[in-house]
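Just wondering, does anyone understand these tokens?
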Amino acid sequence: MAPLQGERILLGVSGGIAAYKAAEVLRRLRDAGAQVRVVMTASALHFVGPTTFQALSGHPVRSSLWDEAAEAAMGHIELARWTTRILIAPATANTIARLAQGRANDLLSTLCLASEAPLLVAPAMNRVMWAHPATQANVATLVARGVELLGPAEGDQACGEVGAGRLLDPDRIVAALVASTLPPRLAGKRVLVSAGPTFEDIDPVRFIGNRSSGKMGFAVAAAARAMGAQVTLVAGPVTLPTPAGVRRIDVRRAAQMRAAVLAELPAHDVYLGAAAVADYAPAETLPQKIKKSGETLTIVLQRTADILADVAAHPQRPGLVVGFAAETQDMEAYARDKLHRKGLDLIAANDVGRAGQGFECDDNALSVFWREGRLDIAHGPKSRVARDLMQLVADRLEASR
């Protein structure tokens, strides 16, 4: 059966140069089995005409709240009830702002307020507009409400600049939409996730840390929640918004993360250690800032506790313990050694030396190992990679019954 068979997708097209790509998104949605109806903003009509979308969808395109023929029967409410999912691609900075503010001053924003269907938003805009604090605050507001963010991608932009702000490729948008329809296979399960870096203080000003952004671990927590699990997220010092429906515990140092994880452990069925925990910490944290003096400075470091090994050996060990391994060489050999040495059930490894994935990126690729097998999760948005990983976790839990 086609993966989106039975789904009724309302495709919102807002007014950016990427609006032309929405036609390909529509075609891929239809290929995947979905019924699609299109709503365009007034600005989108300046970039691409409605006839193309009407031909591809098989339905008239709506663009105005003041369409007398459609609104005589409250057409916007009918559309809001008809759809099973709303996808806005592309979503401009203006559209994202109006959604965050709860405005209903055109047909698309009104439909989003009037519908109880899940909302997925694929941003597309200039890199500076995307990075602006106002846009980021609006995005954080939407994510906190449970809106699923698809992208944006990085690369060349129509304005001639290069950076984050491109619309995700249509295949990746549709893949994310397919993943969002997956059944709640983890309903009734409790999942504990650790994410982000730890910062080990040298003095009140300086610390030892790493490049982990926490994005992968947060995506894992969001994916587990989307599959029906109760999720607790132990987060290092990151500024990411908490995924909707997830309980969050903030920590800073490795010792604090270990204490939080072990305190929560007995109540959980699965532990995923996605955090990039410091292996070493200063033996002493000085109470005052170290002043610059000699040409060299010696700081004595000592090993931190191994949280993953402690979880795997714990008397109240969860049914499934999943580790992560960020490697720059011999990835499989190092990952399998860690799997066996620490007594893990699964280990998800990634090559952080490869451009475009891993630390500080929105994309990733994983190779997941267990004693008798391996699964490679293809390069893509961390949200999709996380869903694929959690599908494997669900498979392993079911196999262990």
Notes: The chain has 14 helices and 19 strands. The mean pLDDT is 88.
